[in-house]
Design brief:
alpha/beta, 12-stranded mixed sheet, 10 helices, 20 strands
């Protein structure tokens, strides 16, 4: 699917957005930026309305038009916040009270990005950077999507399953094992036809990549892109099943995002939620992510590493507003933040890579629930992250 000048979507866009953002006819080749500092970060786009209506939004999936979630309430044992209570929701059923498997649908939309004369296409075989492999086909075979890898987390066998399920089982292992160990939170991935994004020249750039397999790396302005996703791309996918009961993701290939200006780079992915006023369907969760095969940000961010970050953050904080005691000065956070983002404290730290059919898949190490709220750890092996980097809960963040 391609939204181009003259389409019905373009006409809608001109009525809704500024011409500077949406006039893509006459796109000139974007200027190249010199090699950036390659500082990769991740964002959360929470719901715009943070009011009492959140109680209605964060309900345990008793409506057919809502994401299936479970509620938790916990008192922190962390220094500086001991005794404080925190409430939030996570995707699926509760590992505290249930056995069996919950399954949630995740849609993947390969997004072809055209910047000037350069096309970044996850559906095309890439001989230069990926040995002729089609990136979206590699994703389909990955341990995020398929259950072929036996995950042993902190010395405890989580079984042959998806990485997100293995993490969640390990995250609450004390409770999971106490209930017979049959708890699973599975994701059913459905791949949709590719769509095309042609940003205006003012909302795109090309980063020079000397010494890498590709001469340039794509860059798109995040805020303009996000608005187009919400107003046009996501509503257009409703007829294919995308809606509030599931997550829709957008796969960018060797393309990153920046905030406002190309020098404010780079955003590898983010997850968000918004009230879909276009279709009136309800609260939709979504997540764009980059799939890197050029090694632009180093091995710790290649292929499925970024999606593993976003998928597990969405799983544990689907609306981006689960509160925690302040934490920080680790991973990508140089200051303090106060939400349950399991990827951010370990951004850039890998979980051990796995091989399958000649492909190497990278995943990010993730922080456990107990790291945010305090010990003793209920995570696998008594640790506080799924590869043991965190051996104690976060201290007071100052």
């Amino acid at each position: 699917m391609k939204f181009a000048t003259g389409s019905a979507f373009r006409m809608m866009a001109c009525a809704a957005l500024s011409s500077a953002m949406l006039m893509v006819s006459g796109l000139s080749a974007a200027g190249q930026e010199e090699d950036s500092q390659r500082q990769l970060t991740f964002d959360v786009n929470p719901l715009p309305e943070q009011d009492a209506s959140m109680d209605a939004i964060q309900k345990p999936g008793d409506s057919k038009a809502s994401l299936k979630v479970w509620k938790y309430s916990i008192k922190s044992t962390r220094s500086g916040s001991a005794g404080d209570s925190y409430k939030g929701v996570m995707v699926g059923n509760s590992p505290y009270t249930t056995n069996g498997t919950t399954t949630t649908t995740v849609y993947v939309v390969p997004l072809i990005v055209e910047i000037g004369s350069h096309t970044f296409d996850p559906t095309a075989a890439d001989k230069a950077c990926y040995g002729g492999v089609v990136p979206v086909d590699a994703l389909k075979l990955s341990p995020l999507v398929q259950s072929w890898n036996d995950f042993k987390i902190n010395g405890v066998d989580m079984g042959i399953t998806q990485y997100s399920d293995a993490f969640q089982r390990a995250n609450f292992w004390t409770e999971v094992s106490a209930h017979g160990g049959t708890y699973h939170n599975k994701l059913s991935y459905k791949f949709l036809p590719a769509m095309t994004y042609i940003p205006p020249s003012g909302d795109a750039t090309l980063y020079s990549t000397p010494g890498l397999c590709t001469p340039v790396y794509g860059g798109i302005e995040k805020n303009a892109f996000d608005l187009v996703l919400k107003l046009f791309y996501i509503p257009a996918l409703a007829s294919q099943g995308v809606g509030p009961t599931n997550l829709v993701t957008f796969m960018l290939y060797n393309t990153t995002m920046y905030n406002t200006t190309p020098s404010k780079c780079c955003i590898g992915g983010y997850h968000g939620a918004y009230n879909d006023v276009i279709t009136g369907a309800g609260v939709q969760t979504y997540a764009p992510f980059q799939y890197d095969t050029a090694g632009y940000f180093g091995v710790n961010s290649e292929d499925t590493a970024i999606l593993s970050h976003e998928i597990d953050e969405w799983q544990d904080d689907p609306f981006g507003n689960n509160p925690t005691p302040a934490w920080g000065h680790t991973g990508q956070e140089s200051g303090c933040q106060s939400n349950l983002e399991v990827g951010d404290p370990l951004t850039g730290t890998d979980y051990p890579a796995v091989d399958f059919l000649g492909l190497k898949y990278h995943m990010q190490e993730l922080a456990f629930f107990s790291w945010f709220y305090g010990g003793p750890s209920i995570g696998a092996g008594g640790k506080y992250s799924d590869n043991g980097t965190f051996k104690s809960a976060q201290g007071a963040c100052k």
